[in-house]
UniProtKB/TrEMBL annotation:
Gene3D superfamilies: Carbon-nitrogen hydrolase (3.60.110.10). GO terms for molecular function: acyltransferase activity; N-carbamoylputrescine amidase activity. It comes from Kineococcus radiotolerans (strain ATCC BAA-149 / DSM 14245 / SRS30216). Residues 1-226 form the CN hydrolase domain. SUPFAM superfamilies: Carbon-nitrogen hydrolase (SSF56317). Keywords: Hydrolase. The lineage of its organism: Bacteria, Bacillati, Actinomycetota, Actinomycetes, Kineosporiales. InterPro entries: Aliph_Amidase/BUP (IPR050345), C-N_Hydrolase (IPR003010), C-N_Hydrolase_sf (IPR036526). It comes from the Bacteria. GO terms for biological process: putrescine biosynthetic process from arginine. This is Nitrilase/cyanide hydratase and apolipoprotein N-acyltransferase.
Length: 250
């Protein structure tokens, strides 16, 4: 699978964000990507309390997937929740994940949390699990996707703390033997902070395969295949060695 990760700055203008998505998808398609991952709430702009569902977004994303020949991971507000949708290259919606862990009072006031139901879908011959932003900072979520059979975990995000990408994501990939693709915004956030950028792709051995800087747009394009997963799991595969009965003490 060839994974593309877009680091972009969204606005409150849905049409403008979708125009950027179209431009980025065209570049990813020219690079031969199978899957494009975009930041959290990129379609509407990340501004909890002010963003609203737009019913025109998903049909336009599906049309873009068909025209570009790419599977797309896009995040949008839906039924009172922050979600991420996987749309296959033929425009079929493969699934929608609801963000489980809401970050900060603004998100918790504006949205309801998901119930943790994992989403794992097949794209380009690999099984892709989906999380959103703060979810990946909890080890149980990535482990749950790995146990559900995920080979790759994709994470639309909107974060100001660069240490998450630098410290946590390689560990999450390594301890679960999954590849991980993390797409962040850059530039100013609605609350006056600055998004940390640092979008990246990590291999199943914990190696950072590509990373964006803290500032500016970027498009990362990385190959991850079944052989990469097999080699990492041959070194040590933690999942079959778990002793789940011992972790419930206390």
């Amino acid at each position: 699978m060839r994974i593309a990760v877009a680091q972009q700055a969204a606005t409150a203008d849905v049409a403008q964000n979708l125009a950027v998505l179209e431009r980025v998808a065209a570049a990813a398609a020219r690079a031969g990507a199978d899957l494009l991952v975009t930041p959290e709430l990129f379609t509407t702009g990340y501004d909890p309390g002010r963003v609203h569902p737009d019913p025109t977004v998903l049909p336009r994303v599906a049309d873009l997937a068909r025209r570009s020949g790419l599977a797309l991971v896009v995040s949008e507000p839906h039924e009172g929740a922050i979600t991420a949708v996987v749309v296959d290259r033929d425009g079929t919606v493969l699934g929608r994940y609801v963000k489980t862990h809401l970050y900060g009072p603004a998100e918790r006031a504006a949205f309801r949390p998901g119930d943790g139901t994992p989403l794992v879908v097949e794209v380009a011959g690999l099984r892709v699990g989906v999380l959103v932003c703060f979810d990946v900072e909890f080890p149980e979520t990535v482990r749950g996707l790995a146990l559900a059979g995920a080979d790759v975990v994709v994470v639309p995000t909107a974060i100001l703390d660069e240490s998450v990408a630098r410290v946590l994501l390689p560990a999450r990939a390594y301890e679960n033997r999954v590849a991980l693709a993390y797409a962040n915004h850059h530039g100013l956030a609605a609350d006056g902070g600055t998004f940390s950028g640092g979008s990246l792709v990590v291999g199943p051995d914990g190696e950072v395969l590509a990373a964006a800087g803290a500032e500016g747009e970027a498009l990362l394009v990385v190959d991850v295949d079944a052989d990469d997963l097999r080699r990492a799991r041959e070194v040590v595969d933690y999942l079959p060695l778990r002793r789940a009965e011992t972790y419930r003490r206390g």
